[in-house]
Amino acid sequence: MTSKKRRQRGSRTHGGGTHKNRRGAGHRGGRGAAGRSKHEYHNYGPLGKHGFKRPEDAQTEVLEVKVQKLDEDAALYAADGLAEEDGDAYVFDARDVVEDGHEADVVKVLGGGQVRRELRVTADAFTAGAVELIEEAGGEATLSERAEAAADEPENTSDDENDEA
């Protein structure tokens, strides 16, 4: 028996104050971080603003669609008038078939899954896997005019470099 335990013998609450104090979490002001800004100790760390938020106009909204979904739904797109049938191939713009595609900055086609139909897809961006799957099935992946125009634009340079001439 430790000396502290021996000293506490006969004291009823063993150093815990009154009989109410060791019942439940009330004596501590709740469990966990409950009421952290209302009690005597303030946990200042999680309060306030943190980090940096990029301006809306600097952010690029990228909508992604899997090439397997395009393959599975190609007949539906043709029935709805969103795609054209050219022989065995389905020709469409990914921006037309993706929900909110025209509102997004970039529509990107992702790889994965299987492609059984010949697809001729136009989109702003493709992953290497998506291009491979489309071409293996006999189709073609074409970058949109918007993506080509963005690629042709020169990088933004600072005004200091332009003023030297």
TrEMBL record:
GO terms for biological process: translation. InterPro entries: Rbsml_uL15_N (IPR027386), Ribosomal_uL15 (IPR030878), Ribosomal_uL15/eL18 (IPR021131), Ribosomal_uL15/eL18_sf (IPR036227), Ribosomal_uL15_CS (IPR001196). Keywords: Ribonucleoprotein, Ribosomal protein, RNA-binding, rRNA-binding. Transmembrane segments: none annotated. GO terms for molecular function: rRNA binding; structural constituent of ribosome. Signal peptide: none annotated. Residues 1-30 have a biased composition (Basic residues). The keyword Metal-binding does not apply. Residues 65-142 form the Large ribosomal subunit protein uL15/eL18 domain. Residues 150-165 have a biased composition (Acidic residues). Gene3D superfamilies: 3.100.10.10, 4.10.990.10. Residues 1-59, 137-165 are annotated as: Disordered. GO terms for cellular component: large ribosomal subunit. It comes from the Archaea. Binds to the 23S rRNA. Part of the 50S ribosomal subunit. Belongs to the universal ribosomal protein uL15 family. This is Large ribosomal subunit protein uL15. The lineage of its organism: Archaea, Methanobacteriati, Methanobacteriota, Stenosarchaea group, Halobacteria. The gene is rpl15.
